[in-house]
Amino acid sequence: MAKHFLFSFCLLLFTTACLAHHSELDRFNKCQLDSINALEPDHRVESEAGLTETWNPNHPELQCAGVSLMRRTIDPNGLHLPSYSPSPQLIFIIQGKGVLGLAVPGCPETYEEPRSQSRQQQQQRDSHQKIRRFSKGDVIAIPPGIPYWTYNYGDEPLVAISLLDTSNTLNQLDSTPRVFYLGGNLLEAEFPETQEQHPQRHSSPIGRRGGQQQQEEESEEQNKGKSVLSGFSAEFLAHSLDTKEETAKKLQSPRDQRGQIVKVEKGLHIISSELQEEEQQEEEEEREQRHRKDSEREDEDEDEKEEQEQRQTKHSKKEEEDEDEPRSHESRKWKKHTEEKKRESHGRGGEKQEQEKKEEEEEEIQRQHSKGGKNGLEETICSSKIRENIARPSRADLYNPRVGRISTVNSLTLPILRKLRLSAEYVLLYRNGIYAPHWNNNANSLLYVIRGQGRVRIVNSQGNPVFDDKVRKGQLVVVPQNFVVAQQAGNEEGLEYVVFKTNDRAAVSHVKQVFRATPAEVLANAFGLRKSEVAQIKYNGNRGPLVQPQSQPQSL
């Protein structure tokens, strides 16, 4: 009996290992790419206040990288409904600004409305979890299974590109991209190519009463929305949430034709310290402008009075005063203007320095936490920083004033990425600027063009170019791990793009850097070069990967 059990257990382990190995082989076989294409969105879903565009996850390039992508456009006062995904997400804000809220299980509702003084308004005060503000150039990390919502409070459309790492180990389902919505009625599937097929109910000969009951159930099923709450009965929801059945039916969003992004007519009023500070700053700027205009009017009135008094003096003195008066007038005006500028710059500078100091302290705390051990206390999702701006010029990791700049965000600068195993890179190349040949040591990468146009070449292990073409705004190019890639901006305008990487500490090797790290004798014997030629390829030109363009653009 024991031998039979042991044999069955070994057979089970062997079968599991074989299936796992077969699965890994299938995944690796998907990266046998002879050519790579620049991809554009294949599907679009329009909503009341925005647009969702997705790439077909069955593209061989995306199958190799094990990811899916979507691009959302949210109109001003547009609200993207709460949703979550089993796959970790990394979002880059291309345009606009807004706020984002997470509903993290176990975290307290630390944002509360102030207590009202009026007895008539003594209602239940609203409280919720932290609200985070974001703007153009921010990278936002969303953990799997955590519902989040997004609201555009700006004056222009909010555009964001999102990566779903469907092959991440945190995703315990398959590689099919899934988005679960808590509310709303999904008029169309965001990823129709992988839409799950549900078996239809077959009618059974159960008589008139049974057939009528079945038709009523089917009619009620069709009238429900397509959110996760629609799968429960209204009666059960009302009992579970301790509310009225009529309210529970509204939660299921029946016959709602607004889609996943809805319009907030009078704007969204939420509790946010960052938004309050921004509003106060705008009000202070408006007051300063009004004060400046009033002071300028007073100066003009005083100048007119002085001129009238000076006209009543003697003719000889009047001529001298007329010569000096404009200078004194300009000097007084310049002096007053300078003092106001100093006060204004001091006030703004103090606020800016205080805010930067606060952000640096938070980043330092996060770095210390990332270096320290895991005791379950100092690193929690409730207090984790989830966004980092990588588009600011001051944030650049590599910079060449004639070529452009590169900035990265990984688990060292944003510790939450360590759990998601993702990172990102922002690249801005000026006209004809070159990002010299390089490769990602430990990650697949996905290049999305934000603005401009340029040329990209990708070379595989056989030395064959699998991609050599121009790219433009809105296109996506997948660069598999270790494939060598080089980019050059166009002649008429620069090239701006963001790169998502499937490793939280993605490492990059540059050909020039490899040559510098290799002994001259090795290079001479490997390539049949003279010492002078070795010295040229090692020490001529820039030390970094950003190469200054020549007078005429060169083919990659």
TrEMBL record:
Residues 1-20 form the signal peptide. Residues 110-136, 193-227, 272-379 are annotated as: Disordered. Residues 287-296, 326-358 have a biased composition (Basic and acidic residues). One of its GO terms (cellular component) is protein storage vacuole. Residues 36-249, 388-535 form the Cupin type-1 domain. Residues 275-286, 297-307 have a biased composition (Acidic residues). PANTHER family: GLYCININ G5, OS03G0336100 PROTEIN-RELATED. Seed storage protein. This protein found in the seeds of many leguminous and non-leguminous plants is the source of sulfur-containing amino acids in seed meals. This is Legumin type B. It comes from Vicia faba.
